[in-house]
Amino acid sequence: MEIQLINPDARISVILHTDVKAKQCFLKISDDGTGMGDEQKENIFKAFYYGEDILYKHTPGLGLGLTIAQKILALHGGRIVFL
User: What domains lie within the chain, and their CATH numbers?
Assistant: First the structure.
């Protein structure tokens, strides 16, 4: 798995919480990066969407990762959201 970050010194936190009785799990991923504006949050799950920030233009990718992740989760009854 590859994680693409603009700032190589950024820290990432991954927390997994399971609720056996409810048959659910929650995965929280966060970082201490620069964050996203409201426009990016609205569009981030659209296929081929790429941030407008000039730094993103030098990051490889097609803008499909979150679109695919969202569809896979939906097929399994899950969802991906911003908090």
Answer: 12-75 (3.30.565.10)
